Amino acid sequence: MFSPLLYLLSYGTNSDSYRKRRQKYTNFQFFKKNHKKLHLCYYIVLFLFFFKLFYLKLVIDIGNSFAKLSVFDGDEMVDFKQLEDVTSDILKSTFRNYPKIVASILSSVAKHDSSLNEFLMQKGFFIELDHRTPVPFINSYATPDTLGKDRIAIASAATQKYPNENVLIIDTGTSITYDLVLSNREYIGGAISPGLNMRFNALHNFTHRLPLIKLPDSNTEINLVGDSTESSILTGVINGLIAEVENIIVQYNTKFSPLKVVISGGDYKYFERLVKSNIFAAPNIVVFGLKCILDFNEKD
């Protein structure tokens, strides 16, 4: 007996089956027609992934006393040079030695040769750090346009190396800078004080008879009581600065505990050995911070 209902159900089932078979056939035809393009896209993505794994980054930090040039493979520093200055010839030599460098950042506290910028821009992604450069921290400094580039780099490094911690970074260079970054990535400021050599120079230049004392080896024992003019200057400058650093650490620890204290910079060895507080040494934190800023801007 003919049943319209059964006929409709049978027709509907057959139609669904037909549509499914038709869809499979269409998908197969699409793949057959486009498989070469799909393979090409796959290999392009694979190439870009591995290329990003192995390319290098260049960091240039031109400071008051000398310049630093560093090459990074990921977070690993594979080359580091401390130079009197960075020239075009030095950059050309660096790129010959490391042809996989595709991104670079330059930070300079003084006026430098503009040809360096032109050269680096031709070699790939490049930024020159200034107060307008996007950074990976919240800058709550009252006068952000006056914040030193080294301190910007230090704050950037702190958020990357010590996330979710209150961090005091003491950078011991021409000047001693104290920089505080809170656990929420907020930079709120710090302090600036004369460095070791600046103190020796000040005693000599602003008096008539005090000699200019050279900074001794970091392993030299400094007597508490000086028994000559030279040893009196040494104990006054070095032990005086150690006392300053320890007192600031105590004050910051009282207000921002728990606090990680990191010491860096060219004179860090004096403080690492003599400061009694619990501190961590990171001598190249400015360079690492510049690399963090470069990474942050590349992602954007």
Query: If you consult CATH, what is the topology of the domain at 135-300?
Result: Nucleotidyltransferase, domain 5
Beta fraction of the residues?
15-25%
CATH level 4 superfamily of the domain at 135-300:
ATPase, nucleotide binding domain
* Helix-strand pattern: HEEEHEHEEHEEEHHEHEH
Terminal Cα span = 72 Å
Main sheet? 6 strands, mixed
CATH A-level architecture of the domain at 135-300: 2-Layer Sandwich
| Strand order across the largest sheet | 6-9-8-7-10-11
Counting helices, strands and paired strands, the structural category is alpha/beta
- Percent range of helical residues: 40-55%
Shape: globular
Number of DSSP-assigned strands: 11
Instruction: Give the CATH level 1 class of the domain at 135-300.
Output: Alpha Beta
Q: From the alpha-carbon coordinates, what is the Rg to the nearest angstrom?
A: 30 Å
Task: Point out poorly predicted stretches.
Answer: 5-9, 48-52
Overall pLDDT score: 86
Total helix count?
8
How does this model look, in words?
The chain has helices spanning 4-54, 88-97, 114-122, 149-161, 196-205, 229-256, 268-274, 285-299; strands spanning 56-62, 67-73, 76-83, 101-108, 125-128, 138-139, 166-172, 175-181, 186-194, 259-264, 280-281. The chain is globular, with a radius of gyration of 30 Å. The model is unreliable at 5-9 and 48-52 (pLDDT under 50). A six-stranded mixed β-sheet has the order 6-9-8-7-10-11, sandwiched between helices. The protein has a domain at 135-300: Nucleotidyltransferase, domain 5. It is built from eight helices and eleven strands. With 300 residues, the chain is α/β, with parallel strands linked by helices. Strand 7 (166-172) and strand 8 form a beta hairpin.
